[in-house]
Amino acid sequence: MSEAFNAERLTRLCGFLQQSPTPWHATQRMVERLEQAGFARLEETANWQLSPGKRYYVTRNDSSVIAFQLPAGKLTSLRMLGAHTDSPGLSLKPNATQYSAGWLQLGVQVYGGVLLAPWFDRDLGLAGRVHVRHADGRLESVLLNVARPIAMIPSLAIHMDRDVNAGRSINPQTQMAPVLMQSDTAKLHELLGQWLEEQHGLRAVEVVDFELGFYDVQPPSLVGLRKELLASARLDNLLSCFVGLEALLESDGSQGALLVANDHEEVGSASACGAQGPFLSDVLKRLNAQVGGGSEESLIQLIQSSLMISCDNAHALHPNFRDKHDERHGPAINGGPVIKVNASQRYATNSVTGALFRDVCREADVPVQSFVTRADMGCGSTIGPITATEVGVPTIDVGLPQWAMHSIRETSGTRDVDYLTRALTVFLNRPTLS
Fold first, then answer.
1. Domain 7-87+233-429 top-level CATH class
2. What protein family is recorded (predicted)?
């Protein structure tokens, strides 16, 4: 097996991670690369005119994206890649402004299964989307990214909580409101107005609504004496979004291929732009109507002749907590992509899809691993089972091994990035799915 360390790819990845503090920013970055590669934008509200051999993309909610390439002939199958654009974090409440002990703080709500303890004493920025009303009454949605340390959540000194290292619980309602400035009069909307003027030149606008969250402004970094590790926020699951996009852009375009990156996986995927929603099904119906058979029967044939690789990171074997893994299923960082298996269908993998992915990795000269949760522990899930249920497409769940999943800063392997990219590119170029 070759051990690739693609420095240019890692540079692109670090840039993507740093510039994507929210699902909206991640989608925007992906769209920019798609357009640079010649993908044409489609609007869901317009009539589509698709041509064989062309490449297209469409977004929903500006936080989910589907990109696809069409074969030169009739569309009879698709090689699909799936990922998600969201990550656990702290989101602002609608009426977030609050004061305590002479300090302006902002109230937060927890998004997804956040590992709370690492959020303390971090340099926090703020990002998301803001909806404003102009003087003429026109509403506009703009992205905001205050990419500098404007807030932090200070820890309580150990002298005032001697039991803190014994596993004290954390209350997100009362103990995790970030501190922004020493003031008992400043208001969030006033600050938003200042930031909107700084970043977009918007003046005399009214802030009508927003979806904003805090994030760690520390940039990604390569860690280890040989730079074996990549440390960053939001590796789960922007790493898969990046790798899927790299593979799509590097594929030769000979086969029908599709990449879907859904929002809201971390909170169950039950939204119009989530994997449980109709976004992917809507696109597949329109593809079938334009360049497939056109009938309901041909749509089913298209779906059943296709394959979805759902990419979401896997739990790497932790050197300090080896007992948390099944002793025969502890994926190693930089040991290659991980096939995720669960008998209760928390992952969508079966022996048919697993065998095909192993064959893809063999063809790509990439090592492959397996992950099964200990039989006495619960198992998370991904968009894989949801997509398989909603669409009916044969699906496999894979991912890259990482430590500290759902922390504010996660860790994965630098060589694994290239391993999975190569495997997915081979999959997208594969003439047959058997």
1. alpha beta
2. Belongs to the peptidase M18 family.
Q: What is the DSSP letter of 159?
A: G
CA–CA separation, 155 vs 371, rounded Å? 36
Q: Which residues of 371-401 are buried (b: 16+ CB within 10 A; e: fewer)?
A: bbbeeeeebebbbbbbbbebbebbbbbbbbb
CA distance 192 to 275: 32
> At residue 1, does pLDDT exceed 50?
no
Per the prediction, the chain carries an average pLDDT of 95
414 near 10, Cβ under 8 Å? yes
Structure tokens at 263: 């929002």
With a CB cutoff of 8 Å and minimum separation 6, the contacts of 387 are 82, 260, 275, 280, 308, 310, 348, 393, 395
Question: Quick one: pLDDT band at residue 286, thresholds 50, 70, 90?
Answer: very high
Residue 206's alpha-carbon distances to 189, 191, 213, 369, 403, in angstroms, are: 9, 12, 20, 53, 43
d(C-alpha 265, C-alpha 245), whole Å: 18
- Interstrand relation of 229-232 and 221-223 (parallel, antiparallel or unpaired): antiparallel
Q: How confident is the model at residue 260 (pLDDT cuts 50, 70, 90)?
A: very high
pLDDT in tens, 103-128: 999 999 999 999 999 999 999 999 99
Does the pLDDT value for residue 166 go beyond 90? no
Q: Averaged over 346-375, what is the pLDDT?
A: 95
Q: Which amino acid is at 44?
A: E
Q: Under a CB-based contact definition with an 8 Å cutoff, are residues 236 and 218 in contact?
A: no
**Does an H or E element contain 103, and which?**
strand 103-111
Average pLDDT over residues 20-35: 98
- 3-state SS, residue 369: strand
CA angle 175, 176, 178 (to 5 degrees): 125
- Is the whole-model pTM more than 0.85? yes
Three-state SS for 244?
helix
Tell me if domain 7-87+233-429 and domain 89-216 are identical in fold: no
CB 313 within 8 A of CB 371: no
Sign for the pseudo-dihedral over CA of 25, 339, 344, 393: positive
Structural domain spans, the chain: 7-87+233-429, 89-216
Report the topology of domain 89-216.
Answer: Aminopeptidase i, Domain 2 (2.30.250)
Q: 169 with 144: CB under 8 angstroms?
A: no
Partners of residue 258 on adjacent β-strands: 68, 80
- CB count in 10 Å sphere of residue 190: 11
